[in-house]
Amino acid sequence: MKPVIIGLLGLGTVGGGTVQVLKRNAAEITRRAGREIRxxxxxxxNLERVRPLDLxxxxxxxxxxxxxxxxxxxxxxxxxxxxxxxxxxxxRALDAGKHVVTANKMLIALHGNEIFAKxxxxxxxxxxxxxxxxxIPIIKALREGLAGNQVEWLAGIINGTCNFILTEMRxxxxxxxxxxxxxxxxxxxxxxxTFDVGGIDAAHKxxxxxxxxxxxxxxxxxxxxxxxxxxxxxxVGYAEALGYRIKLLGIARRSRAGIELRVHPTLxxxxxxxxxxxxxxxxxxxxxxxxxxxxYYGAGAGAEPTASSVxxxxxxxxxxxxxxxxNRVPHLAFQASAIADIPVLARQDITSAxxxxxxxEDRPGVLADVTRILADQAISIEAILQKEAxxxxxxxxxxxxxxxxxENDMDTAxxxxxxxxxxxxxxxxxxxxxxx
Length: 436
Ligand code: NDP
Ligand code: HSE
Known about the structure:
- The chain has about 425 residues and is α/β, with parallel strands linked by helices.
- It folds into three domains: about 5-135 and about 305-330, NAD(P)-binding Rossmann-like Domain (Rossmann fold, 3-Layer(aba) Sandwich), CATH 3.40.50; about 140-300, 2-Layer Sandwich (Dihydrodipicolinate Reductase, domain 2); about 350-430, ACT domain (Alpha-Beta Plaits, 2-Layer Sandwich), CATH 3.30.70.260.
- The chain contains 14 helices and 17 strands.
- It has helices at about 15-25, 25-35, 65-70, 85-95, 105-120, 140-145, 160-170, 175-185, 195, 200-215, 235-240, 305-320, 365-375, 405-420; strands at about 5-10, 35-45, 60, 75-80, 100, 125, 150-155, 225, 245-255, 260-270, 280-290, 290-300, 350-360, 380-385, 395-400, 405, 425-430.
- Strands 7, 8, 9, 10, 11, 12, 13, 14, 15, 16 and 17 form an eleven-stranded mixed β-sheet that branches. Strands 3-2-1-4-5-6 form a six-stranded parallel β-sheet, with helices on both faces.
- L-homoserine binds near residues 134, 188, 196, 201 and 301.
């Protein structure tokens, strides 16, 4: 059978990994797909950077717009990243009748609705397994493996860079900026690493997971986002003293009132599997009504782990090339006509337990004032950790763990506590999830 010809956009970390995996495992991939999958054309901005790759047999094209309309190409693989020109190239590829595979979570989260609409109209596939959790086949698991379930919630460590930073800070006491630099060298970080540490990359991925889990449109603008840039070593230490680890989690939960979509640093009990996912590894727990909790674990970033997902998509697309478009797996798991408009809750309406760290004057009555304010908002305290003031100091840190509370009530309580004369500086607040 005629080989499937790939037009590859981008020869960086993931593009390079894809070239390597496709070449090394060519025979095995052909056995699985039923025909050879071959990179025919590739395009990259800086050809200097692609020199170490074995590009034998691949025609390099300077203009990516030429590549996406080349008659030889069956599938366009977009591994450039960013919105433009990636969006325009994907739309042009679909206009030209090409199937698309991409690892670009930002593109899918922000423009997936229009991209899938066009693909649907043209009877084309757009596959994006690599866009979420690198090498973990979480899209396939959620879209196909759990298709019999009503998904109740999912929670995941879905940014390898942040998990690498938090792990190195906790295990080796390393400096935040220093570890971030290493993550960049290792190819884990986004071109703009503030997307990683600011929680935006995780929010892109959560947007995609939630859409597939609940059959809702992609709605990145509805995600409450908080990154890890403000996490301090003292919080990592206090969390540990209380039996918790701090992880950047993406959480999507369905309740009667609507869907919670949030990304934030989170204290997780150290006995939970998610608390023990370290380094660049990612993991996602999905709770289905029929199956119960399921856990997916693996490398969340890096050249070959991500290429593993890109190539799996290529095999899927190659297998389905001759199938009737009406009978393919829908892009977002649910039939396009059945996507539901379930409301996404505003941040203030989300319920979560909290870790609070305050710096208080070391004198009687201060803790009583704080607990009274919390009680006024009906917030129950789960645990208190009070450190002794160091010699010569009049201020001491107090750490409180609360029961779950509506964010709006916590906002009010924090405002009142911060206005007390005996409380200094802003209160550090980190959400707590027991993941029961
Ligand atoms: P890189 O920066 O390593 O590679 C991007 C490639 O695209 C480079 O070859 C770059 O050329 C080329 N490129 C970028 N912009 C243009 C442009 N305007 N015109 C032509 N070529 C362009 O990125 P990654 O490989 O790390 O990431 C690629 C995609 O995969 C992104 O969407 C990313 O979010 C996603 N991803 C990355 C993962 C990872 O572990 N790195 C994991 C999962 C997904 P040049 O080198 O000259 O700039
Ligand atoms: N920058 C991303 C991460 C790459 O660190 O998880 C994988 O999507």
